[in-house]
């Protein structure tokens, strides 16, 4: 059952029409699109700080907005926790008073204990500090904690990491993962960073120019060739789910079982039997028609070509079937010609172990 | 210092306090309108608020006399319905001081409201705070330095007001004779120089104490947030 169902039409702050229809359930729902796609507008409409022109928003069976009946629950009465891009901590309150704000100013009784959230986000030593003195990453962690302590039925996150540099992002991502694992609050996560979406989300809603282009299971969405432009050509890829089989401590590699075939990737700190998700970019996959030996490429996966897409450009997008999962490859049109590639033939997908390094390798719940 | 001098200082303080007490809420409301809303007549309101600053004080005093005098439109109404008389009373002196201080109150408060990020109020709403609670716990504390600055400026102005006061409520010892008016009277008489000097020193001391106290408070607020 979905927690949140949205079907709204309205105007974005910058004046273009937005129409969004989707639902979000347990886990993290990604709302992905380029800047100006209308993601933040949709989030504000769910929170009630922006009013749609028409439509309906329902959360846990409660109607938050319905233009037909004239229902419009005021923002402070909606239990929508909001994490803003810029944190928006109250500068005149300590971290402690910021975190507990919903309790003393919003009269929200939280079901989660203060200390539980403080521990979860590692904020124990910062409680008596002032927001001005916090680093960007610490600030966002406080903002997330503050929203969690407002007893939210759903957590809306508006690009919470976009104001941070690469290292700080990497620091915060594990906290977001532990929120998914240790609280049962569903999250709608807005981002234009495909890596964050790949790593965090279970369900994905893709928006472009104010409308929802596609939505569904994140793995399925990444496998779809037609979403290439929307997901970003250069970064497009798929997500493969697998299980860790072998750990090679000497070389810092792990073997992941993907539908019976082993893929060796760079990684440490994993346990055998653990479920992981690999993000494999289409441009990191090469194609061979016979199994090659004597190659530095560690991974060679047998798969079947499902579809080849070409356009006027020099590139071709291949969709490959790998067991019950999909893989994508981006090669030149010339290679397609020379290797005589077509649908339904068996090929080998070559994948450099290092190309998966630093990509999302998430523990799955 | 003579008992008379102390009485004059106390009267001045009473007049200035009353002036600020009544002017501050109105000034805050006007500052809020000017900072947050777009409406017809906004520039008119803006001009009206600055008027006491640019018009000669005597003119303001005369306008008060016309409006609030015992035969004035508002003055007669207040007298008939509430039995309140302002002309030639210390309350009238407070009104004159409040009107003259008004622009000095509005400006810093308005600037301070404009610097409050409405996004913080939005954040408070998503955390369950009602509008009133948001105002009390977020907006007001953030505007506080501006209110403080305005109050000190306004208080200093109210304490030293001369032109509008003498025109509106005259110079009646024990009723409307505040510091500046007393100094003026003393300087008119051949033997008043010493007493005048005492009052002058007293007014300078009061002004310095007020400014230092407000600076100290503002500094404390700033430092607390940066710790």
Please explain how this structure is put together.
The complex is a heterodimer of chains A (365) and B (227). Helix content of chain A is 21%, strand content 36%. Chain A is α+β, with helices and mostly antiparallel strands and 365 residues long. In chain A, the strands form four sheets. A six-stranded mixed β-sheet of chain A has the order 7-8-9-3-10-11, with helices on both faces. A five-stranded antiparallel β-sheet of chain A has the order 2-1-4-5-6, covered by helices on one side. The model of chain A has no long low-confidence stretch (mean pLDDT 85). By secondary structure, chain B is an all-alpha fold. The mean pLDDT of chain B is 90. Chains A and B meet through strand 7 of A and helix 6, helix 7 and helix 10 of B.
The total count of strands of chain B amounts to 0
Helical stretch count of chain A?
A: 10
Beta content of chain B comes to under 5%
The total count of helices of chain B amounts to 10
The description of the largest β-sheet of chain A is:
6 strands, mixed
Supply database-style keywords.
heterodimer; A: 365 residues; alpha+beta; 6-stranded mixed beta sheet; B: 227 residues; mainly alpha
Write a short abstract of this structure:
With 365 residues, chain A is α+β, with helices and mostly antiparallel strands.
Task: Describe the SSE topology.
The complex is a heterodimer of chains A (365) and B (227).
Chain A: E1 4-11, E2 17-24, E3 28-32, H1 39-47, E4 54-59, E5 62-66, E6 71-72, E7 80-83, H2 95-99, H3 101-104, H4 114-120, H5 136-148, E8 154-158, H6 166-182, E9 187-191, H7 194-200, E10 203-208, E11 211-217, H8 218-223, H9 228-231, E12 237-248, E13 253-258, E14 261-266, E15 275-281, E16 285-288, E17 299-310, E18 315-322, E19 325-332, H10 333-338, E20 346-351, E21 361-363
Parallel strand pairs in A: 3-9, 3-10, 7-8, 8-9
Antiparallel strand pairs in A: 1-2, 1-4, 4-5, 5-6, 10-11, 12-13, 12-15, 13-14, 15-21, 16-20, 17-18, 17-20, 18-19
Helix pairs in contact in A: 5-6
Chain B: H1 3-36, H2 42-54, H3 57-68, H4 73-82, H5 90-115, H6 118-126, H7 131-160, H8 163-169, H9 179-188, H10 193-226
């Amino acid at each position: 059952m979905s927690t949140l169902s949205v079907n709204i039409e309205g105007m974005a702050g910058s004046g273009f029409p937005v129409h969004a229809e989707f639902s979000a359930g347990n886990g993290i729902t990604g709302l992905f699109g380029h800047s100006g796609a209308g993601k933040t507008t949709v989030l504000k409409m769910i929170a009630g700080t922006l009013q749609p022109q028409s439509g309906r928003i329902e959360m846990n069976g409660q109607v938050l907005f319905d233009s037909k009946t004239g229902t419009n629950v005021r923002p402070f009465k909606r239990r929508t926790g909001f994490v803003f891009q810029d944190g928006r901590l109250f500068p005149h309150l300590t971290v402690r008073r910021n975190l507990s704000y919903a309790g003393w100013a919003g009269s929200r009784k939280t079901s989660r204990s203060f200390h539980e959230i403080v521990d979860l986000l590692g904020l124990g030593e910062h409680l008596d500090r002032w927001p001005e003195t916090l680093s960007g990453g610490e600030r966002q962690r406080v903002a997330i904690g503050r929203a969690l302590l407002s007893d939210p039925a759903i957590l809306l996150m508006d690009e919470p990491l976009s104001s941070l540099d690469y290292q700080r992002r990497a620091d915060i991502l594990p906290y977001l993962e532990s929120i998914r694992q240790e609280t049962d609050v569903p999250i709608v996560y807005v981002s234009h960073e495909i890596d964050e979406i790949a790593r965090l989300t279970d369900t994905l809603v893709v928006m472009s120019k104010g409308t929802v282009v596609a939505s569904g299971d994140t793995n399925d969405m990444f496998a779809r060739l037609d979403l290439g432009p929307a997901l970003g050509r250069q970064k497009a890829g798929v997500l493969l789910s697998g299980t860790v089989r072998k750990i090679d401590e000497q070389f810092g590699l792990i073997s992941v079982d993907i539908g019976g075939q082993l893929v060796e990737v760079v990684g440490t700190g994993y346990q055998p039997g653990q479920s992981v998700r690999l993000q494999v970019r289409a441009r990191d996959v090469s194609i061979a028609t016979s199994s090659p030996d004597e190659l530095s490429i560690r991974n060679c996966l047998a798969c079947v070509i499902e579809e080849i897409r070409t356009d006027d450009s020099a590139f071709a997008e291949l969709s490959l079937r790998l067991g019950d999962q999909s893989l994508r490859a981006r090669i030149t049109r010339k290679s397609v010609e020379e290797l005589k590639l077509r649908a339904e033939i068996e090929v080998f997908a070559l994948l450099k172990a290092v190309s998966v390094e630093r990509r999302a390798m998430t523990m799955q719940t | 210092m003579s008992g008379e001098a102390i009485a004059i200082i106390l009267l001045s303080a009473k007049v200035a306090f009353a002036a600020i007490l009544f002017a501050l809420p109105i000034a805050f409301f006007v500052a809020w309108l000017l900072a947050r809303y777009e409406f017809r007549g906004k520039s008119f309101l803006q001009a009206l608020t600055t008027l006491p600053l640019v018009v000669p004080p005597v003119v303001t005093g005369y306008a008060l006399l016309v409006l609030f005098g015992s035969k004035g439109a508002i003055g007669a109404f207040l007298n008939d319905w509430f039995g309140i008389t302002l002309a030639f009373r210390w309350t009238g002196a407070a009104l004159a001081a409040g009107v003259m201080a008004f622009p000095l109150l509005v400006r810093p408060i308005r600037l301070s409201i404009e610097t409050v990020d409405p996004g913080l109020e939005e954040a408070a709403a998503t955390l369950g705070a009602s509008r009133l609670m948001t105002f009390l716990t977020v907006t007001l504390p953030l505007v506080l330095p501006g209110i403080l600055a305005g109050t000190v400026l306004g208080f200093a102005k109210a304490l030293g007001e001369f032109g509008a006061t003498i025109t509106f409520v005259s110079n009646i010892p024990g009723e409307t004779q505040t510091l500046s008016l007393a100094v003026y009277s003393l300087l008119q008489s051949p033997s008043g120089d010493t007493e005048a000097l005492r009052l002058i020193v007293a007014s300078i001391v009061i002004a310095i104490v007020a400014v230092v106290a407000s600076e100290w408070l503002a500094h404390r607020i700033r430092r607390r947030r940066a710790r």
